Amino acid sequence: MWVLAFHSGAGISADHAALRGFGALDDLHLHPLAEAIARLCDPLPYAVLCLGVLAHTYRTRGPRGVLAALAILAAANGLTHVLKELAAQPRPVFDMHVLAASWPSGHATAAMALALCATIAARPEARRLTAIAGGLFAVGVADSVVLLGWHFPSDVLGGFAVAGAATGLVVAATAWAEARWPAGTGRRALQGRATVAVWWPGVAAGIGVAAVLIAIAFGYITSVYGTRTEGPAFVVCAAVIAGLGFALAAAGSTVPAES
What we know:
By secondary structure, the chain is mainly alpha-helical. The protein contains nine helices and no strands. It has helices spanning about 1-5, 10-25, 30-40, 45-85, 105-120, 125-145, 155-180, 185-225, 230-250. Helix 4 crosses helix 5 (about 105-120). The chain starts with a helix and ends in a 7-residue tail after the last helix. Mean pLDDT is about 80; it is low at about 185-200.
């Protein structure tokens, strides 16, 4: 996504076209709603949401679950902060003011990391509903920051990718730790964790393939329609953001629950 957003002519054109397509929604007067949703990932409200998720995690997964959730949140948001500084580069857009240090989106990263933590912490009977709610939350925040002109679409996709990668690494590390030092649940703990290390690489590969196909589609639309790409690019980008957001939330719902 970084290569496409900064070093690919087709990717850059598509990114700009999709941003203008989101901006065309101004006529619907969605800015107040979009800002209210986006502000949920500002420091204070986000801290409150995190505390709620961590409290529930303690009830369902105990201290180890809380440590894993904290690791996901810290790794995802910390890595995004570092990447912002490393990838900072002006990307001028007519009538919009996207900051140079905008990739990946901190709001999108924070929203997806929290959604994944909440889904993993949910009890088995509430997993699907939590995944849907978490996906809606993350996608809502992502779409909102693009609609407001704070970020390019590639920024929020990059944020989702960072959150997904951080979660996958922490889940894999947790599986390894539980296999080596079971948390008092005997053989069932070992069996439950063993499936995670096998499952996550397949999901990562699937998301990677989807990202490549999406990038090809983006470039194709841009090359065929020239400068009149706002509509097609907006539709494709909105679908991609929603698809990746719900795919990651669904992935979180398959992490084995505590036995």
